[in-house]
Design brief:
Elements lengths: L1 H33 L4 E18 L2 E16 L10 E5 L7 E5 L16 H10 L8 H12 L5 H12 L15 H27 L4 E3 L11 E4 L4 H5 L6 E5 L2 E2 L3 H9 L6 E7 L2 E7 L2 E9 L2 E9 L2 E3 L2 E3 L4 H23 L4 H4 L3 H14 L1 H18 L8 H14 L5 H31 L3
Antiparallel strand pairs: 1-2, 3-4, 5-14, 6-13, 7-8, 7-9, 9-10, 11-12
Helix pairs in contact: 1-5, 1-10, 1-11, 2-3, 3-4, 5-8, 5-11, 5-12, 8-11, 10-11
Length: 450
């Protein structure tokens, strides 16, 4: 039964992520097509191709081996596409390379690289200017090397190929040949598609499975934990959704209102919590974190410190028969979701709240037990998060591309290959750091609850 549960979670996890990736990339794809750009590849996942679905209107559709996202390959978007050339590696260095416009790997196929000396390779590397073309001085040095007695036949062929390399005429259907506004539209279309898809799910849920509504926190609402915020005090202590709080510091708790009152009254003070989980009584020792809030008393605003554990009330799933009301509720929820994402990103505890694949898989496991409405809700929230997070101004993300396009518009000239490559390196470093952080958070939550 345990294995079946794991398989069910894996199926839900990969199914949801695959749909979200396809929707996001379809946004880029459809706008690129509308703008007359050449789209070479639309792939689900990365790595080696394991299934070639087919080719339609010049675009190849594939499924690849590494199940981490997907991509659309639009001609003219890669760094080497800016000048349509090949990299020339600096001898003895795996990191330093320069792009030579007009040179392709196919043209070098008959050159025996084993017979190319470091002297020749370094001369070619140094002859390439910042514009990805041979400098006048560099060209003269390579021409001298071609006629030198110590130059062997493979080296002469290599040198002559480099000297003959001329930039190919640009493809009018390439991304980098299109007007700036069209390129910006293609980039923005991905996040927009994710946001709209999340919004669509919210609206459809309103008149089908129902949408979660937070009940009024009156005296009649039971003190049952409806949600546990990852990384917060309650989550670290091991509290779970469905726990019924019985008492705090031996004071009986019969409603959510009483629960909130007792927790709020104990900021930064350890409390003893007794809860019912199924038929078992569980006890926790927790210290609510202090949160500064502003309340109105006797017509005046008063600053107060209150305790918080990081738990929420159980929502009520409410169905709306009218599509118009469902749309209204969907609009309210997506606005709230976007607001909460930005609040989390710019909060002091942003790093603690980040979650990655392991955290998402854990949420999917809970959702698969809760039913289709829980799965759809998480899918909608993930789609909105995918749209918003991709708009962050980090190079290699869509938001970073938009920033570079804005810079191009201000400078009134395109970024050079070196500038574009430098921006990508910064983006890869930031994303790599964030990935390590979210994986650390996920593993810590999984193995260290205390």
């Amino acid at each position: 039964m345990h294995i079946l549960s794991i398989l069910k979670t894996a199926f839900v996890f990969f199914s949801v992520l695959s749909v979200l990736v396809i929707v996001h990339e379809w946004g880029h794809f459809i706008v690129a097509k509308l703008c007359g750009m050449r789209v070479d590849d639309f792939s689900l996942f990365f790595g080696k191709r394991i299934w070639r679905i087919g080719n339609r209107n010049g675009t190849e559709y594939n499924v690849r081996a590494i199940p981490l996202g997907g991509f659309v390959k639009i001609a003219g978007m890669e760094p080497e596409d800016i000048t349509m050339g090949s990299y020339v590696q600096k001898p003895g260095s795996k990191k330093n390379a320069r792009l030579l416009a007009g040179l392709s790997f196919a043209e070098l196929s008959d050159v025996d690289e084993r017979k190319i000396s470091n002297r020749v390779s370094e001369s070619i590397y140094n002859a390439i200017g910042t514009d990805t073309r041979l400098t006048q001085e560099g060209r003269g040095e390579l021409e001298t090397l071609v006629g030198a007695e110590i130059t062997n036949e493979s080296e002469r062929r290599y040198l002559q190929t480099v000297l003959d390399a001329t930039p190919r005429p640009p493809d009018p259907r390439a991304y980098n040949q299109k007007p700036l506004l069209q390129r910006a539209a293609v980039i923005f279309a991905g996040p927009l598609a994710s946001l709209l898809f999340g919004y669509l799910i919210f609206c459809v849920m309103g008149s089908t499975t129902g949408l979660p509504q937070i009940p009024d926190k009156d005296d009649k609402t039971e003190a049952i934990v409806g949600m546990v915020v990852p990384g917060k005090v309650a989550a670290k202590a091991g509290m779970k959704t469905g726990d019924k709080i019985l008492s705090i510091n031996q004071t009986p708790v019969s409603s959510w209102k009483e629960l909130v009152t007792l927790i709020s009254a104990n900021p930064e003070r350890q409390i003893n919590v007794s809860a019912l989980r199924g038929t078992e009584t569980i006890r926790f020792q927790v210290t609510p974190v202090a949160e500064q809030i502003t309340e109105e008393e006797n017509g005046k605003k008063v600053e107060k410190k209150v305790g918080r554990l990081g738990i929420g009330i159980s929502p009520i799933w409410r169905r709306y028969d009218s599509p118009l009301i469902s749309i209204k509720q969907g609009t309210s929820i997506i606005a709230y979701q976007v607001q909460m994402i930005f609040t989390t990103i710019f909060s002091r505890h942003a790093s603690e709240n980040l979650s990655g694949p392991i955290g998402i898989a854990g949420q999917m496991h809970s959702d698969s037990q809760g039913g289709v409405n829980h799965i759809l809700l998480t899918a909608a929230q993930l789609s909105v998060s995918l749209g918003v997070m991709n708009l962050l101004p980090i190079p290699i993300l869509d938001g970073g591309h938009l920033v570079l396009l804005a810079l191009e518009g201000i400078r009134r000239r395109k970024l050079s290959f070196q500038e574009f490559l430098a921006a990508q390196k910064v983006g890869i470093f930031i994303i790599g750091t964030l990935f390590i952080l979210v994986m650390y958070n996920d593993i810590k939550r999984l193995f260290f609850k205390g």
